[in-house]
Amino acid sequence: MRLLVIEDEAPMRTALVETLRAEGYRVTSAPDGISGLELACTEGFDLILLDVMMPGLDGFALCRELRKRGRDSAVLMLTAKGQVEDRVNGLDSGADDYLVKPFSLDELLARIRALLRRKDRESTISDEFSLGNARIDLSKRLLVRDGTTLELSEKEAGMLRLLASHPGETVSRERFLDVVWGYHAYPSTRTVDNFIAALRTKLEDDPARPRYLVTVRGTGYRLEP
């Protein structure tokens, strides 16, 4: 899972990054709201830890802008402001949860796990769906096209599930590696390209000119429903 820490206080930012990496997460950090917003809008993150009180662009404004741009990463706000109206403002700006400083690391990690579980449940899809003249059954790992039944490997089925969970959205190569292969395994991003090529031969009428598994140059792939 990929996490983004946006925190302007260097000691806190360093402590969060080191703690989360020790838990097995892939972590990127930003020292201010402007650079954090740019990262959040150009890369795919499962969850964003967002400090509220930052110069330039504060956490409330940043979160509102994220939601305005259609970014659906889970957002956990971190702040020293514990008044009810501040928590309401944070949630109304689009945050999924709100944690008041100082907090225990155990509680922080529990909140993160809960948000990631919720995100996984929200992104579930039916095991059976169609793409053009192809019928796909992810539970059986089968693809039927033009009367021919083809088997899908475990990784191919996992990649299709991830793509189908986010139709029309770009899925980065790193996200494929995180979700399908797992953070403990580190194949190269070229591995993702090879699996996409294999999927295209099964799914596309013309694999050289894909209609459904579309390349997003420099980033990853997108499923066109």
UniProtKB/TrEMBL annotation:
Residues 126-225 form the OmpR/PhoB-type domain. The modification 4-aspartylphosphate is found at D51. Residues 126-225 bind DNA. Gene3D superfamilies: 3.40.50.2300, 6.10.250.690, Winged helix-like DNA-binding domain superfamily/Winged helix DNA-binding domain. It holds the Pfam family Response_reg. CDD domains: trans_reg_C. It comes from the Bacteria. InterPro entries: CheY-like_superfamily, OmpR/PhoB-type_DNA-bd, Sig_transdc_resp-reg_C-effctor, Sig_transdc_resp-reg_receiver, WalR-like, WH-like_DNA-bd_sf. This is Response regulator transcription factor. Residues 2-116 form the Response regulatory domain. Keywords: DNA-binding, Phosphoprotein, Transcription, Transcription regulation, Two-component regulatory system.
